[in-house]
Write a structure and sequence with these properties.
By secondary structure, this protein is of the alpha+beta class. It has one domain. 17% of the residues lie in helices and 39% in strands. It is built from 2 helices and 9 strands, in the order E-E-H-E-E-H-E-E-E-E-E. The strands form 2 sheets. A 5-stranded mixed sheet has the order 5-2-1-9-8, with no helix packed on it. Strands 4-3-6-7 form a 4-stranded antiparallel sheet, with no helix packed on it. Helix 1 runs antiparallel to helix 2. The relative contact order is 0.25.
């Protein structure tokens, strides 16, 4: 679900910048893609109860740090249920403590309910053996590492 990942090292802090995308966007049939993204948007809209909104939680595995919360805002849900049925959040910046640390991304639809995202946890800050194209969840993205 994360695309266009670029990594930097600066003062012992690793940073990953990318987008949260829906793998349904990879469908070659736009009508089917829009139908599924709209349905998902309606489902997520139904999870809004009182002041609670669905959100993504991004955090390091085995860390006591609270992690990063990305709320599924009204704007995001409107984009999903609109005519174009677009699901794209970002750019999102994730900080890591070390290259080998695994990062988890979960979708939280209700209080205290976390659903892991396919392909995670993942060592997002590990040095690639060589520059290459990765294909998580059937989607291509290029990954490069720059040390600053």
């Amino acid at each position: 679900m994360v695309s266009e990942i670029y990594q930097y090292r600066k003062q012992q802090v690793l940073i990953c910048i990318g987008f949260i995308l829906c793998k349904l966007d990879a469908s070659p049939d736009n009508n089917i893609r829009r139908k599924y993204v709209r349905s998902l948007g309606e489902y997520l809209r139904n999870c809004v109860v009182g002041s609670f909104q669905p959100y993504f939680l991004i955090h390091e595995v085995n860390s006591t740090a609270p992690g990063k919360v990305i709320i599924m805002s009204r704007e995001i849900l409107d984009d999903m249920t609109g005519e174009e049925a677009i699901f794209k959040i970002g750019p999102v910046t994730i900080k890591g403590s070390s290259e080998g640390t695994e990062t988890a991304i979960s979708l939280c639809l209700r209080q205290l309910q976390r659903l892991p995202i396919s392909g995670f946890p993942r060592a997002m800050f590990a040095r690639p053996e060589k520059k290459s194209m990765f294909q998580p969840n059937g989607m291509n993205f290029e990954r490069s590492l720059t040390i600053v």
